[in-house]
């Protein structure tokens, strides 16, 4: 109980640290922060844009080129790596295609991607009111664009927060910071160049190299196939950390066992984590808590099964979810 009280007190220091990063504008308030975030949601779902951004995570810096297109309500994206090994990802409503030109490899995952680039927030922000504050932090400037700076700050220590620099004109997020429970930015995305334009100026299909198209249509294997899962699943969760609930069940083939791996996805509407359940006895299974950048993971045995919980949430949240697991008998 004392630990839970400490967890609930942490967001105050987080709010103070986040708020101190930019000068607050007294002409604006927290309600306008929420309004700007609503503009952001509309922008990332409806605008066409292209640009270059840097992605800092796990002490690694990646530079990416993105082309984002919305046509007839359908989203299509192309991401191209500009440093390291050449690679590109083409994503649409139905599949995710990964192209690695140097090795002549393509993988196609025939399922929609769960999170579009920049589309981090639910369509209805009111769903977050119970567990998050919305804060106006001031003004900034990113990639030559003036920006409004706003934050989403958790009310307890069971989830991370966000800080956004939103373009004054389009409301697209020029920069986003994922803030851990100590108020430290553990993952950052920032545009260095951004153009907002029309669909005709950003036709993705015409610009894909011919070899990529040929490989995608003729040689690309379908990977990560999902298997059917019993409607109720083999596990249930009781006494989850406040606000979290089960959003999806899934199964994956296990290369080391005839039994499939069960996946359970839990979310509070913004933060999410996955729990993987597989046969016990795997020699390389994770044991205990591990941290890699913004991602926490926990592994161990529960009811004779190997359980691995992983997500961009504090470690205490993973432990709370594992404690809530119940095997159906």
Tell me the distance between the termini. Answer: 30 Å
Mean residue pLDDT: 81
Compute the number of helices.
4
Measured as a percent range, the helix fraction is: 10-25%
What is the spatial order of strands in the main beta sheet?
6-5-4-3-2-1-11-10-9-8-7
Structural class: alpha+beta
How would you sum up the major sheet? 11 strands, antiparallel
Task: Give the SSE string.
Answer: HHEEEEEEEEEEEHEEEEEEEHE
Number of strands: 19
Q: Tell the overall outline.
A: globular
Strand content: 35-45%
Radius of gyration: 21 Å
Unreliable residue runs: 1-9, 199-203, 210-230
Provide a quick synopsis of the model.
With 329 residues, this protein is an alpha+beta fold. Helix content is 16%, strand content 43%.
Description:
Helices cover 16% and strands 43% of the residues. It is built from 4 helices and 19 strands. Strand 1 and strand 2 form a beta hairpin. The radius of gyration is 21 Å and the shape is globular.
What tags apply to this protein structure?
329 residues, alpha+beta, 4 helices, 19 strands, 43% strand
Q: Strands, helices and their partners?
A:
Elements: H1 2-19, H2 30-46, E1 48-57, E2 60-71, E3 74-81, E4 88-91, E5 96-100, E6 105-109, E7 132-142, E8 145-154, E9 161-167, E10 173-179, E11 185-197, H3 210-218, E12 235-237, E13 245-252, E14 261-267, E15 272-279, E16 288-292, E17 295-302, E18 305-311, H4 315-323, E19 325-327
Antiparallel strand pairs: 1-2, 1-11, 2-3, 3-4, 4-5, 5-6, 7-8, 8-9, 9-10, 10-11, 12-19, 13-14, 14-15, 15-18, 16-17, 17-18
């Amino acid at each position: 109980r004392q630990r839970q009280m400490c967890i609930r007190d942490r967001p105050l220091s987080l709010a103070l640290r986040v708020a101190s990063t930019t000068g607050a504008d007294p002409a604006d308030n927290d309600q306008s922060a929420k309004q700007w975030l609503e503009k952001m949601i509309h922008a990332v779902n409806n605008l066409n844009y292209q640009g270059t951004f840097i992605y800092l995570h796990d002490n690694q810096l990646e530079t990416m080129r993105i082309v984002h297109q919305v046509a007839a309500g359908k989203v299509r994206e192309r991401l191209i790596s500009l440093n390291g090994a050449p690679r590109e990802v083409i994503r649409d409503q139905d599949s995710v295609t990964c192209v690695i030109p140097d090795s002549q490899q393509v993988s196609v995952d025939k399922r929609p991607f769960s999170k579009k680039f920049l589309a981090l927030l639910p369509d209805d922000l009111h769903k977050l009111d119970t567990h998050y504050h919305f804060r106006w932090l001031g003004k900034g400037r990113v990639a030559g664009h003036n920006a409004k700076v706003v934050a989403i700050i958790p009310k307890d220590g069971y989830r991370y927060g966000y800080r956004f620099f939103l373009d004054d004109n389009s409301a697209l997020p020029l920069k986003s910071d994922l803030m851990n429970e100590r108020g430290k930015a553990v993952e950052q995305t920032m545009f260095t160049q951004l153009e907002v334009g029309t669909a005709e100026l950003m036709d993705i299909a015409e610009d894909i190299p011919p070899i990529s198209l040929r490989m995608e249509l003729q040689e690309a294997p379908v990977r990560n196939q999902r298997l059917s899962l019993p409607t109720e699943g083999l596990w249930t969760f009781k006494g989850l950390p406040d606000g979290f609930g089960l959003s999806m069940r899934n199964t994956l083939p296990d290369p080391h066992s005839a039994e499939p791996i069960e996946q359970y996805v839990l979310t509070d509407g913004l933060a999410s984590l996955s729990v993987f359940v597989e046969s016990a006895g795997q020699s390389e299974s994770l044991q205990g808590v591990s941290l890699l950048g913004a991602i926490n993971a926990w592994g161990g045995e529960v009811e004779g099964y190997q359980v691995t919980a992983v997500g961009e949430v504090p470690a205490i949240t993973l432990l709370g979810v594992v404690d809530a697991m119940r095997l159906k008998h």
